[in-house]
């Protein structure tokens, strides 16, 4: 079977500027595939649902706030069960793999994929691939059943283990063939989704009837298009404990300073939302917003001012903030981890030391600084109620899509609706806080901190922003959590 080397984007156009960025389907490259009636129509759990199945033409807009004369714009295929499926349940042999760093909710996603396949579709041959991508060709697997995964959502981490790197597309697909696997569920961040895209391309080149499905995972919430990543709500909630401890330490001492380092290699969403939720933070530093230490309007001047006003202060810094400043004062490094991420220097320790050095020159203002780094504690905890619900939606949507024959897609939430997004859309760029958007302005208003930006910095940030569209605020979802619009996700203001 001869197939072109790269799968072309499926763009379907309609009236009034409607564009559907569709996802691949097995029938695109395998002809005359048999279809089967969806077992859900006989499932007692779905007997109360007025409409069992999603209409074929259902789609979800990426931008929800438009002008009356605006084109309808980009849409994604709506997730959900279809009337016809392309897999006979008895023939399905599925596998699940987790890759990259830990994140609250990993075990919940694993559990719900297993239970969704089993309870909704009667699939009983499900394998867990141990240790990330290299587990495929290291031949490490464990059988997964609803009984074996029954209570794993109560634990942090992942029962399958994880690793960075180890991606060898040919070996992985060889192993998929050898094991006769026909559904592959891959849970991981943007690097993992890039790997999943390569696996899909190789599967397609070989003409295999294998659905390759991604579930996006990043605690930093830096995957584009989707409203938010699972584990993010839990991370923000848990970060409050560290901020609360820093606040207690700071206010209990004269000129007390609490410094808290939070996750955020390239994107400062956790630090921003934790700061807004806490109300105890005096200053928040994130990778997207440069800052400087000395001189008029600098961080040191602001710290002195806040200590004189309140007698204490709390400072939150994302792990990727201030890397240029550290590089100027320390020997920089271009080393990377196995996933290709640059190894960052510890901004928390560096900043704490710089603050101490500054105030040693001011004997009239003795400070008491406490530094807290809860990073790995936050990554390792189980997900909270909100994230558990979200993980269930992501997992079940992925299962519905695979059974319906869709492949080469990521399951994600767009404008509060579950959708299927082509791999290339979630890997083409990174979601970042836009410091010219309203959410960052809200934070500056809440903390009353300076922006540390010159007029030129602001103009440059505005130029780097995506083409201008109407601004909008985040909505509040039924669970009481922020459900940002896709426009805000696209521009980094979740």
Structure description:
InterPro entries: ATP_PFK, PFKA, Phosphofructokinase_dom, PKF_sf, PyroP-dep_PFK_TP0108. A hairpin with a 2-residue loop joins β16 and β17 (417-422). Helix content is 33%, strand content 17%. The protein is of the alpha/beta class and 494 residues long. Residues 466-494 have low confidence and may be disordered. The protein has two domains: 10-228 and 383-427, Rossmann fold; 233-380, Rossmann fold. The protein has helices at 106-121, 134-137, 169-178, 190-205, 232-251, 269-278, 299-310, 323-329, 347-360, 375-379, 385-403, 423-427, 438-447, 455-464, 486-490, and strands at 10-13, 18-22, 36-37, 59-61, 73-78, 84-85, 94-98, 126-129, 141-143, 183-188, 211-216, 256-262, 283-285, 312-318, 368-372, 409-414, 417-422, 475-476, 482-483. The strands form four sheets. Strands 1, 2, 4, 5, 7, 8, 9, 10, 11, 16 and 17 form an eleven-stranded mixed beta sheet that branches.
Sheet/helix structural class: alpha/beta
Can you tell me the overall shape?
elongated
Unreliable runs, pLDDT <50, ≥5 residues?
Answer: 466-494
Number of domains: 2
- Binned strand content: 15-25%
CATH topology name of the largest domain, in short, is Rossmann fold
Known CATH architecture of the largest domain? 3-Layer(aba) Sandwich
Query: Kindly, what is the distance between the CA atoms of the first and last residues, rounded to a whole number of angstroms?
Result: 44 Å
Q: What's the count of strands?
A: 19
Alpha-carbon Rg, integer: 24 Å
């Amino acid at each position: 079977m001869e197939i072109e080397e790269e799968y072309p984007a499926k763009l379907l156009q309609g009236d009034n500027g409607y564009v559907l960025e569709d996802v691949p389907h097995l029938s695109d490259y395998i002809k005359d595939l048999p279809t089967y009636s969806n077992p859900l129509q006989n499932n007692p759990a779905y007997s109360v649902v007025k409409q069992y199945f999603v209409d074929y033409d259902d789609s979800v807009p990426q931008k929800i706030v438009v002008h009356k004369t605006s084109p309808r714009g980009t849409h994604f295929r709506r997730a959900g069960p279809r009337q016809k499926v392309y897999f006979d349940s008895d023939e399905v042999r599925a596998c699940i793999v987790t890759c990259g760093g830990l994140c609250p909710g990993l075990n919940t996603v694993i559990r719900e994929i297993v239970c969704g396949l089993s309870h909704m579709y009667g699939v009983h041959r499900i394998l867990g691939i141990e240790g990330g991508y290299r587990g495929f060709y290291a031949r490490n697997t464990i059988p997964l059943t609803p009984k074996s995964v029954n209570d794993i959502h109560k634990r942090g981490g992942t029962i399958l283990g994880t690793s960075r790197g180890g991606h060898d597309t040919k070996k992985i697909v060889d192993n998929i063939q050898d094991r006769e696997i026909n559904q592959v569920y891959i849970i991981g961040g943007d690097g993992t989704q890039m790997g999943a895209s390569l696996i899909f391309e190789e599967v397609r080149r070989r003409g295999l009837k294998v659905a390759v499905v991604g579930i996006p995972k990043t605690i930093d919430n830096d995957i584009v298009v989707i409203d938010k990543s699972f584990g993010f709500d839990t991370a923000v909630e848990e970060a409050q404990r560290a901020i609360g401890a820093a606040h207690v330490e700071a206010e209990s001492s004269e000129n007390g300073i609490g410094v808290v380092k939070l996750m955020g290699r390239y994107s400062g969403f956790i630090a921003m939302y934790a700061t807004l939720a806490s109300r105890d933070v005096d200053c928040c530093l994130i990778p997207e917003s440069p800052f400087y230490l000395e001189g008029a309007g600098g961080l040191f001047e602001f710290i002195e001012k806040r200590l004189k006003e309140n007698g204490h202060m709390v400072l939150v810094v994302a792990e990727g903030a201030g890397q240029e400043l550290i590089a100027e004062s320390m020997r920089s490094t271009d080393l990377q981890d196995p996933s290709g991420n640059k190894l960052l220097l510890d901004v928390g320790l560096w900043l704490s030391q710089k603050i101490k050095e500054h105030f040693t020159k001011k004997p009239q203002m003795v400070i008491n600084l406490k530094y807290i780094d809860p990073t790995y504690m936050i990554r390792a905890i189980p997900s909270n109620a909100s994230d558990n619900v979200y993980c269930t939606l992501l997992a079940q949507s992925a299962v519905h899509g695979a059974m319906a024959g869709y492949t080469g897609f990521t399951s994600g939430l767009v404008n509060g609706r579950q959708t299927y997004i082509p791999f290339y859309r979630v890997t083409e760029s990174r979601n970042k806080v836009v410091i010219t958007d309203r959410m960052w302005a809200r934070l500056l208003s809440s903390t009353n901190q300076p922006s540390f930006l010159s007029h030129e910095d602001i103009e440059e940030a505005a130029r780097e922003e995506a083409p201008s569209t109407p601004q909008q605020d985040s909505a509040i979802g039924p669970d009481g959590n922020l459900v940002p619009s896709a426009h805000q996700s696209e521009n980094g203001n979740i």
